[in-house]
Amino acid sequence: MGDSNFNPKIPSGEQNPVLKKAELDYMKIIEQKNRERVAKLQQTAKRNRITGLSIGAGVFGIYLYSIFAVKQETFLDDFEEPAKIQQ
């Protein structure tokens, strides 16, 4: 697929072309939109982490509570089979 002899065409003119004011303004607008998008994504990621940790803490708390509650129950520990009635 790749040809090792292929070299892309690069214009041999100016090394640093001068950009027009409209192009610079457009680049600034795009950069600002990108910064806003990244900030929004970071906020969403932070909220997702907080939500995940909250749900995980809730599940872990319920698990610990159920383990603790089962350890307190003693009604099966002293279970003696009732004497059988003979007829």
UniProtKB/TrEMBL annotation:
Component of 250-400 kDa complexes called cytochrome oxidase assembly intermediates or COA complexes. GO terms for biological process: mitochondrial respiratory chain complex IV assembly. One of its GO terms (cellular component) is mitochondrial inner membrane. It comes from the Eukaryota. The keyword Transcription does not apply. It is found in: Mitochondrion membrane. The chain crosses the membrane at residues 50-70. This is Cytochrome c oxidase assembly factor 3.
